[in-house]
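seq as requested:
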Amino acid sequence: MSSNLDAPFHLSLDKGSATPLTDQIHRGIAVAIEQDVLRPGTRLPSWIDLSAQLGVARGTVRVAYEKLAADQLIEASRAAGTRVAERPASARRSEARLDPGPFVTMYRELTAGPGLFQPGIPSRESLPSKLMTRLRVRALTAETTGAALYPDPRGELELRREIASYLAVARGLVCSPDQVLITGGYAAGLGIALRALRLEGRRAWMEEPGFFFTRHALPLGGLTTVPVRVDEEGLDVDEGWREAPDAVLAVVTAGQQAPLGVTMSLQRRLRLLDWARSTGGWIVEDDYLSELQLQGRAAPALASLDSDGRVIHIGSFSKTIDPRLRLGFVVVPAPQVARFGEVAACLAPPPGPATQAAIAALLREGHYLRHLRRTKRLYLAQRDALLRALQARGLHTHPAALAVLVRTPDGVSDLALARALFAFGIAPAPLSVWYARPELAQSGLMLSVATAPLSQIERGCERVAELVERAAVEISCPAS
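struct tokens:
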């Protein structure tokens, strides 16, 4: 049974938010449908009428409606207009009851967006979108008109060749295309490594603080994590040796430590490689930012120093191009190529050939290196502006890779602050969630420079300073 809206559709928009209006409209209507505020069969205003009600461009509403239709939440016809799609009540009740679990819930919360200062997301300003569209259309056309054959489970040879060439130039890592496996991003690469190395029941060194995703993934792979502190030289290898001399794996972000941004010193690198060689241990190098170093030239990859075949190098294009690509790679020591290839073929095949072909063309034609140079210039300007704006408001700051760390007052929950800021379209990451040991955890907000457009920095920093000050006052003057 269908019905019409009795009054104009009410939808609140924040035109000063960093979240695009299209996404606000899409999210507002989607939530209303999921919560049964808008029931199946309800007729929505036309996108022309709704744009007039909201005071936005017609195209903005039209794109939001197209996304809702693609999500199968609404359907449109000339005769019936635009209506909420039918959805079985039993299915809606089942969806409402399913709990994804605490980790997935936290992961989704920390990656929700888009938002100002949101870490882990590259800027859209420096990406050559028209070029990317052309390359992907060309690759998709070639795929759909070619023979329907099963692709190489290691990834397309043209992309593996281009990645090997890029790594030799940009990361000092010399390898053959046969040592490169194409993956569905860092997570897939880590999963392949854990399965191929067969380290279940053993212990692994994990940076403290370190990437919370990796910290959760290692136990899923059957390992017990041992937090090892990070200082100004990177992972403290001697502490790891003292705390867990029987460890068989170390996962490090040697180029730019996540989240503190320090580069592992040469002395620590050699010490870590010596540990792996003498104990038969393995090192997973998470090269999550590749050569995207804002000041000076990026240090060579840790794997470039490995003469014993103990380092598994994992990279991706999530931070340099787009996380939605779900495209990454693993560089495997030569003796392990066959084993890793088996795991990839049977358990973790790469993304479709068209995506791989488009990125191969981006690398081959020189567009990728030019994109990185533009991105570095943009990020450096945005970081300097962000630092000035934060310091002008009396906040304690510290550059950390592609972010600026804002220290929060003692006793203030950075997680609560981050949640409060998200309501204003601002999405920093709380520092405390990167720690495994509560007694070592420090509080702070990680503000990404990649998602800090120059035009919005002042407004965003004003809001951050306001909420930090308010939280400090509440801690010092608790309600009686």
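The chain has a mean pLDDT of 90.
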